Amino acid sequence: MGRRAMLAAFVAMGGMSMPPVAGFAAPAGADGVARQWAVFRKKYFRPDGRIVDTGNNRESHSEGQGYGMLFAAAANDLPTFEAMWSWTQANLRHTKDSLFSWRFLPGHVPAVPDTNNATDGDLLIALALAKGGRRWQRHDLVQAAVEIYRDVLRLMTLQVGSYRVLLPGAQGFVNPDAVTVNLSYYVMPSLLQAFELTADPAWHTVMQDGMRLIMQARFGQWGLPPDWLSIDRHTQALSIAKGWAPRFSYDAIRVPLYLYWAHMLTPDLQAGYARFWTHFGADALPGWIDLTTGARSPYNAPPGYLAVAQCTGLASSAKLPTLDHAPDYYSAALTLLVYIARAEEQAK
Predict the structure, then answer these.
(1) Residue in 53, 59, 97, 120 annotated catalytic
(2) Looking at 53, 63, 97, 209, which residue is catalytic?
């Protein structure tokens, strides 16, 4: 099954995105991406190849390296891409598989005290390698992506009842009674890329089961996904995972974004997000919502959340936020992902 056939299968599930929201002011294509990447690179890239998370003690993560490499590939910035890829291999790559440790702590000894991986970081790095390899005619980069995808499928997927789930990491998410997943780790554009590169039908199963989870894991007044979801291994019942705040927030904000980017945001899901965004409006989007009490954060969401809302249901004539006044790395990354998703849509 090719990429188009796979997307056709998701159409049958209601899994293609709706047309852009009326009144939404789209970014200026590839030129907009290049301009925003220049700002991101100046703020968060270090010459040794490290992307700095300014919201978390200037740490670095496999997620951030993946985002940075994706942005550089989209902006056709090969030297910066190669610097990030070299640093990532030297500092985060595992020795026994093709995955990556999730965090680097500057000034700490050792700098990588926890070698557990983060599957979203692995998938983002693989997607960046695949895109960069094709853009620059680099077979070595494409082959590196294939190796990562192979090990994600081999090590980071688990059958739980009727679901083949994507584990967030190798350690800490499975016990005899339940499995904890993070729906924002289903980086749908990367999973589509994995299937396209490997032609392994297991990737279709992972995506299809991921969509089933996203469709069913809708909690609270607004029917939103939680940051962390628990699947009962005996009954397959879904619940908000214990041990984490019961919120739609920092992680789950990426669920609609990745669906939109992959053209898999169903009309039903988009309508639900639209109701949520519109209730608060562009000037008062919450940083989080408690899915058990309905309480909202005492502060408003950063600009990156607004960018996600603008492409996934918020009717707004406002232009996308730019990165010039981004408060931190993560908000900037969300915004630039929206620029890239829109630019790819316009290029078709």
Answers:
(1) 120
(2) 63
Confidence of residue 10 (pLDDT cuts 50, 70, 90): low
**Is 120 a known active-site residue?**
yes
Could you give the CA distance from residue 84 to residue 20 in angstroms, rounded to a whole number?
Answer: 33
Checking if the pLDDT of 24 tops 50, the result is no
The better pLDDT of the pair 147, 11 is held by 147
Phi then psi for residue 219, to 5 deg, are: -125, 160
Instruction: Determine the average pLDDT of the residues in 49-76.
Output: 96
Please tell me the distance from the alpha carbon of residue 52 to that of residue 65, in angstroms, as a whole number: 9
**DSSP letters of 4-72?**
HHHHHHHHHTT-SPPPPPTT-B---HHHHHHHHHHHHHHHHB-TTSPBPBTTTTTBEEHHHHHHHHHHH
Is the predicted pLDDT of residue 3 greater than 60, yes or no? no
Q: Residue 164 belongs to what H/E stretch?
A: strand 163-166
Record: fold of 3-347: Glycosyltransferase (1.50.10)
Are the beta carbons of 152 and 126 closer than 8 angstroms?
A: yes
* Residue written as token pair 């974004």: 257
Give the Cα-Cα-Cα angle 199, 145, 6 (nearest 5 degrees).
30
CA distance 6 to 185: 20
Alpha helical stretches, state H, the chain = 3-12, 29-44, 62-74, 78-91, 119-135, 139-155, 188-198, 201-216, 254-261, 267-280, 303-311, 329-347
Q: Given this model, what pLDDT does residue 316 score?
A: 80
- At 132-154, the pLDDT tens digits run 999 999 999 999 999 999 999 99
Counting Cα atoms < 13 Å in the Cβ hemisphere of 74 gives: 30
97 is catalytic: no
**CA-closest candidate to residue 76, choices 26, 123, 137, 122:** 137
